[in-house]
Amino acid sequence: MITVAIVEDNKDIVALLEALLDSETDLLHVGSAVTGAAGIELIKECTPRVALMDIHLGDMSGIDCVRQLKPLCKHTEFVMCTAFDEDQLVYEALRVGASSYLMKNNTVEFMVNTIREVAEGKSLMSSDIARKVVKQIQQTYPKAEYGITSRESQVLEQLSFGRTYQEISDQLFISVKTLKTHIYRIYEKLQVNNRVEAINKYYNINKG
To answer: Which of 145, 160, 163, 149 is nearest to 198 (CA)?
Structure first.
């Protein structure tokens, strides 16, 4: 069972998200908060596996909430939610520790899949969001080498676009088995466990 908390200042959206969670047998809603301060206390108390965090809260930014909570709740994955398509906020949210990012107009299926993927230590973002993140990272930070080969660099770029293994294999004209070998070597070289950590480390997103 995946425990999920909601921090959202729009009560109508809270009700919709609660109904969505209640309709899924593998998701357990453990609490909701409508302010950042209340959200911090809620998440510290119940330590959910996944927290859906509005980026624009009345009393403080959802990004500031994640910045405070991430060091304290290491096993909680934060998924940022917003109605606005803002490149810098997407980048900043991931920089402080968010695992994924949802637009409030994403489909119900995409939202549910994102929660499940994030709970497994993965990341699922729309291709538009992924492209914005990569663009921001590439403009801001030089890539570190870490002994990454040119082919592995191509794989990392494809991963950062949020593509599936099959899509990456088709794009690079390699088998899924070969792709998984590249990914294993990338994770080993970077000493990470998932694609978000790999992208963050390779592009130095957490520096500065």
So the answer is: 160
Distance CA(85)–CA(180), nearest Å, equals: 32
pTM, rounded to two decimals: 0.66
Q: How many helices (H) and strands (E) does the chain have?
A: 10, 5
Question: Which of 77, 85, 124 minimizes the C-alpha distance to 103?
Answer: 85
Q: Which fold has domain 141-202?
A: Arc Repressor Mutant, subunit A (1.10.10)
Output the CA torsion sign for 160, 100, 104, 165.
positive
Task: Tell me the per-residue pLDDT of 117-147, one tens digit each, with 9 for 90 and over.
Answer: 889 887 666 656 666 665 665 555 555 568 8
pLDDT digits (tens, 9 = 90+) for 50-101: 999 998 898 899 999 999 999 899 899 999 888 766 667 777 787 788 888 8
Instruction: Delimit the domains of the chain by residue range.
Output: 2-128, 141-202
Secondary structure element (H or E) that encloses residue 39, with its range: helix 36-46
State the DSSP code for 70. Answer: T
Amino acid at 150: S
Burial track 104-125 (b if 16+ CB lie within 10 A, e otherwise):
eebeeeebbebbbbbbeebbbb
Q: Does domain 2-128 have CATH number 3.40.50.2300?
A: yes
